[in-house]
Specification:
Low-confidence stretches: 1-27, 147-154
Helix content: 25-40%
Strand order of the largest sheet: 4-3-2-5-6
Distance between the termini: 28 Å
Shape: globular
Order of helices and strands: EEHHHHHHEHEHHEHEHE
């Protein structure tokens, strides 16, 4: 594994951020062997802008979709769809009923279409850099590939970037269930304290951090990349935090 003394061509040593270990003491510098990335909200912009746009176009109250998804978050239509427990038709029926329970008619297919985000090139480059030095994995809550609707988070376009892709619809559990993170760590052969995990939702980061992972809450690409390279202690040649 690379150390702070590594002089490999194509990388530069990068001072650890204040949130990371003291760079002076090698005994406290975190030993990282894997970097784990969420997809939507990390490699791409998040779905919330799309939700808001649909709500405006449909004349629905602002924040309604997030309200539906945060009601009974472990057993609602969205959670069951991401665990592969219902198919697309079942999801649409359940999600529409949840909207009606709140007094509104919601089109589930338009909601699904709204979740696609724009790719963040700086995050894609960060994944490529990390894969040259660490194990990498994508950790995504997504929908079954057989679902006949808009693909969740564009998983297929990112598959080749990672050593492993962990999909909720395939493994039957979803973030923030600690079992999901255990599956991911086992897949890349590390213990939680040897991994960095990036996600845009604090609720997903909290259990990972409790397991010992180094976590980064992604607000934007520049911030996330700077924190990641700070924890790792290395960055691509030519990269600047400014």
């Amino acid at each position: 594994m690379p150390t702070r003394a590594d002089t490999r061509v194509g990388t530069v040593l990068y001072p650890l951020s204040p949130m990371a270990a003291d760079p002076v003491s090698s005994s406290t510098t975190p030993v990282i062997r894997a970097v784990l990335f969420d997809l939507g909200g990390v490699l791409t912009t998040g779905p919330f802008e799309g939700f808001a746009r649909y709500e405006r176009e449909a004349g629905l109250p602002a924040g309604l979709i997030r309200q539906i998804n945060s009601t009974n978050p472990d057993t609602n239509a969205w959670a069951r769809f991401e665990r592969g427990e219902v198919d697309l038709a079942g999801f649409c029926e359940l999600f529409a009923a949840e909207g009606r329970a709140l007094g509104h008619e919601v089109d589930p297919m338009r909601v699904l279409a709204a979740i696609r985000g724009e790719v963040r090139p700086e995050m894609v480059e960060a994944v490529r850099f990390c894969r040259t030095r660490y194990k990498t994995a994508a950790l995504t809550n997504n929908f079954a590939p057989s679902a006949q609707g808009p693909p969740r988070e564009g998983t297929s376009q990112f598959t080749e970037l990672f050593d492993v892709v962990i999909e909720s619809s395939r493994v039957g559990v979803r973030k923030p269930d600690p079992r999901f993170y255990r599956i991911a760590c086992d897949a890349v052969g590390v213990e939680p304290h040897e991994a960095v995990f990036l996600d845009d939702l604090g609720i997903n980061l909290k259990p990972a951090r409790a397991m010992g992972m180094h976590t980064i809450k992604v607000v934007n690409g520049h911030q996330a990349v700077a924190e990641l390279y700070g924890i790792l202690g290395v960055a691509p040649e030519g990269w600047s935090p400014e």
